[in-house]
Amino acid sequence: MSIWKSAILGAVLLASGCHPVGTPLGEERVASKIADVMISDNLVVQVVRQQIQGLMSQGVIQQDQVNQVGMAVSRQLTTDLPTVKKTLVASLTKEFSIKELEFLYKLLTSKEGLAVAQKQDAAMQETMQQMGQLAQEATGKAITRVNSAWPTGGHAAPPQGMQGMPEMQGQPLPN
User: Fold this and answer.
1) What's the mean pLDDT in 39-49?
2) b/e for 76-103, b at 16 or more Cβ within 10 A?
3) What are phi and psi of 86, to 5 degrees?
4) In terms of domains, do 86 and 136 share one?
5) For 128, which of 8, 14, 63, 161 is 20 to 30 Å away at the CA?
6) In terms of domains, do 146 and 132 share one?
7) Which one is predicted more confidently, 122 or 168?
8) How far is 37 from 109, CA to CA, in rounded Å?
């Protein structure tokens, strides 16, 4: 083997040894920043509210248990957040390139990106209310059909409007 071939082979082996196995560090850093923005205390509050509302509508908990259950769920979710963030980082680095991750981070944190997100929320509000109303009507019809086929069921149609936590009434549900 000539000296040039040996030098090239050595350079290739050396260069291949320098590349880390797995996710590049830059992508992981940007994905971690995105996870910090996306998975926040606000997300925990939204998830807890959804869980409490579901438990109340199913009759699993009563109004006087809301605060205790909410605090317990919140504490547990807060403890589990690092694991959730690791899962999100892995998913982001698997699906996106470094340029896409940087773009997503800018979209999530820049003034322009936040303005677009707020406009999107405002634009979707009427649609989400319409979907909620249609879902409620479909649920009522389905329960009526089931009760007419099986009259022994005796379950009443769902109540009109949101019930549960008073501070949730009239607010759109988070995604």
Assistant:
1) 85
2) ebeeeeeeebeebbeebbeebeeeebbe
3) -60, -40
4) no
5) 63
6) yes
7) 122
8) 8
